[in-house]
Amino acid sequence: MPRVDGPRHRRPTRRDRRWGRAARRLLAGLAAVAVLAVTAVGWAGYRNLAGGITTSQALAGGPGSVGGAQNILIMGLDSRLDQHGQPLPQDIYDALHAGDETVGGYNANVLILLHLPGGNGPVSAVSVPRDDYVDLPGCPSGVCKGKIKQAYGLAYQQKMDSLSDSISQSSREQTAREAGRRAEIDTVRRLLGVPIDHFIEVTLGAFFQIAQVVQPITVCLNDDTSDSYSGANFHRGVQQIDAAQAMAFVRQRRDENDQMFTDLDRTRRQQAFIVSLVTALRHGGALSSPSDLRNLLRVAQQNIAVDAGFDLASFVDHAATLTDSALTLYTLPISEFGQDAQGEDVNMIDVAAVRAIVHSVFTNGSTTPTPTPTQSPSVPTTLDIVNATDHDGLASAVEQSFGADGLTTGSVTTADALADASTIAYGPGADDAAHMLADRLQLTATASDTVAADTVQLTIGADFPADQYMSGTRTSAAATPVTTVDATATGTQAPAPTDLTEMAGSKTPCVK
C-alpha cells in the first residue's frame, strides 16, 4: 500500500497537532477493545476524509441495549472486492493464495460480537463459528436454514437479481450489500438473543492493509504448522510475521501435520491475531506517525462500513475509558459436526445453550450460565402459548415442555398473523414466573393489563428455536453443562469443538 506522506520540511501547524492528538486518542481508545474497529473510528479525528466511509441504514429500527451498554457486531467479509465493489490491489490477491476478484463471494467468515458494558466492567468479544447451522430469517434466495455466514451472500444475491439492469452497477452493489447486511445482522441477533446496537463491516483488504501499516506483528503457535492452501508455514513458538504471512495466519483451516485442525481453530487464530495487532498498535509507532495514521484512515475509506447511527465521538469517549479494562475473547461451542441436506459440512449447535452463554457473559461477566430454577412459584401460574409461526404443533410441544418445569398448562392458540420476534407478557401475580421463563428463553418479560391474573402469555415468533422442541430434543441450558477451556491450552487439555473457549486479550496468545 503506498505511503501518503505530508510535505517535507514543514512545521506542524496547530491544526495538525490537534488532529494528531485527536486521531491518536481515537485510535488508541478503540484499539483497547477491537483492532478491526480502529480504522472505523480513526476517521472521526480527520473530518475531511469522512466522506469516503461507507455508512449503512441496515440497523435502522432495530432494538437496542439498555443501561449504556453497547453490542457491536464485527463482520469480516470473504469478498475479493472493496466496499465500492472494486478489485483489491494485486498484492492482496497474491497474499490470499485464493484467486482474484472473480473468486469468493459475500460470506461473513468472521462474526464477532463485541460487548462494551455500561459501567467499567469487563469487555467481552464473542466469536460465532461461521459454519453454525441456523435458521435464516426471511429465507433469502429461498434458503431457510444454512450456515450463519451465508445469510449475507444469499440476501445480497436475491436483491441483486431483483434490481433492474438500468440501475448503475455502483448503486446495484450498494443496494444489494444493504440487503446482505440486514440479513446477517438479523440472523446473528436472533441466534444469540441479544440486541445489536452497531456494526462494523470489514473486507479482506482491511486485514492485509492494516497489517502492512503495523508489521511486523508478533504471534505465537503451539506447534509447527503448514498448509499449502493458505500458504501458512510457521514454526513453533513466538515469531514475527509480515502482512502476507498474517493473511495465511488468519485464514489457515487445514494443517498438513494435524488432521484434527478445525475451523474453530481458525477462529481462535483470528482472535489471537486481533490481540497481537492491538498490542502492536498500542506499543508500536503506527499511532504516533501521521503518515501511518493517514494510511489507516485510507484503509477505512476502502474497506470499512458502519451503521449510520454510530455516534463515533461518543463511542470513542466510551472506549477511551476502557483502555485498561480486561478484554476476554470467547469462541462459542458446537454440539457436533454434521451435514445439511445437500451434504455440506456444518456445525450443529444447541441454540438454548449458546444464548445462555452469551447472556451470562454479557450480563455477569462470567462464562457459567446462571442456573435457572425449575421449581414452581409459590402461586400456581398458567402458561398460555400463542403460535405465531408456520410450525404446526409447536405451541403444544412447548407447552408440554414447560409444563414439566412447574407451570400450569393453559390455552394453546394460533395467531392471526406470523410474528418475527417471540415475546412474553404477564398479568398481575405472574411476575416471578414470567421472569423465570424469560431468563430461560433469553427474552424480556413485559407486564400487560390484557393478560389474566396469574398468567404468562408466550407468543412464539420466527426467532424461536423450533427444532429443539419439535424434535423432542430440547434441553434446558441450565441442565446442559458447558466446559470452559483456555483457548491456548495444549495436549490433552487442548480445546475440543464442543468446548467454550476463553482467551485473555493481553500479551501474545499462543494458539494451535
Describe the protein.
33% of the residues lie in helices and 21% in strands. It is of the alpha/beta class. The chain has 2 domains: 49-366 and 484-511, LCP protein (Aminopeptidase); 381-462, Alpha-Beta Plaits, CATH 3.30.70. 47% of the residues are buried. Residues 488-512 are annotated as: Disordered. InterPro entries: LytR/CpsA/Psr_C, LytR/CpsA/Psr_CW_biosynth, LytR_CpsA_psr. Residues 488-498 have a biased composition (Low complexity).
State the gist of this model.
With 512 residues, the protein is α/β, with parallel strands linked by helices. It is built from 14 helices and 23 strands. The chain has helices at 14-31, 38-42, 90-96, 150-162, 169-192, 204-214, 243-251, 263-283, 290-303, 312-320, 351-364, 394-403, 431-441, 466-470; strands at 54-56, 70-77, 108-116, 123-127, 133-135, 145-147, 198-202, 217-221, 225-227, 232-234, 237-241, 304-307, 327-331, 336-339, 345-348, 382-387, 408-414, 423-426, 445-447, 455-460, 484-486, 500-504, 510-511.
What keywords describe this structure?
512 residues; alpha/beta; Aminopeptidase; five-stranded mixed beta sheet; 14 helices; globular; LytR family transcriptional attenuator; LytR_CpsA_psr; LytR/CpsA/Psr_CW_biosynth
